[in-house]
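HUMAN: Forgive my ignorance: could you write out one protein's sequence and backbone structure tokens?

ASSISTANT:
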Amino acid sequence: MKIKTKTGAMLALASAAFIGTGLAGTQSTSAQEVSWRAVSHQLPGTARFDGTVPVFAECVGAASGGRMQIQAFGGGVLLPVGETLDAVRDGIVEMGLIWAGYWAGKNPVFALAGSRPGDPITTFNESFYRAEKLFPIVSEAYKAEGVTSLGAFDFGPPEILNSNVEIRSLADFKGKRVRAGGIGATFYNTLGASAVTLTGTEIYQALQLGTVDMAEFNDWLVNKEMGFHEVTKFVIEPAMHTGAVDDKDMLVNPAAWEKLPEDLKQIVLACRDRARFQSAIAYGIGTDRARKEWLESGVQIIQLPEADVAEARLIGAQVIRDFAAKNPQTAEFVRIYAEVLADLGHTEMADLLKTGQ
């Protein structure tokens, strides 16, 4: 395959990635031209879309010399977010870049893959170590739904908990309405709150009108891009519901994937890897800067007492253990997850998952 010569850091980085795959400088064995559509739950204009999704698509187009083009669509633009898995399975679109937690109702593995209450992992390297170790379990769950998973697409820093009520202890969660999704909804219900299901575009008005008292969505950066700092009085830390997450899994239609020539498959994977590192840089730096801007806007941070944090992690571990009992796949997921935490030195949470004490 002969890569078109273009200026810019994007192509330079992509070409560097291809050296490791043996693609750089090789001659294509196929003149096949491919056009795919990819959908995401994230919204254009936010870092978690703009920082990786179109960059990935541009990388594929440039590295393939224009032989493969991917048209990227944000959440709700082409189809409802909740229909993404079925759309990829049925070939309505060829690719989904989507959070696993949306499919919790199909298989509890997806709830655990989406987020884990009490997860102490916050960094990029630990997050992808966990993702790679758990990939075989998650991939099998997706296969059962008729789609092929190519693994985690990008990195999401820990979410924050936006609140318009003062939460000084776990007892203060009782009776509060919290926007949460996936296993996070189970976690907050266990704390005595009432979980409310809302799409990302509905959260601003819900906080503004008091439809919910609190809301989780993304990190400091994306939440600011959504304007949530304008309708939030407090941020409760730490966000015990989840640590760093795989913001999107890369899902493809099995037939479309199998039809791709091998060199185009390798280009997709190499550009995926570049998107992973791009997300670590863009999201990590951006969320630190956004946190300062939130404070400058007058939003207050409330730090929960250490004893309450410890109790919340215990509750989170029990929620995960309850999910482990749902089927053999979830039991294996939790077993491997506990091993990963132990490998990374998070022995306290690992022990909680093993013993519940």
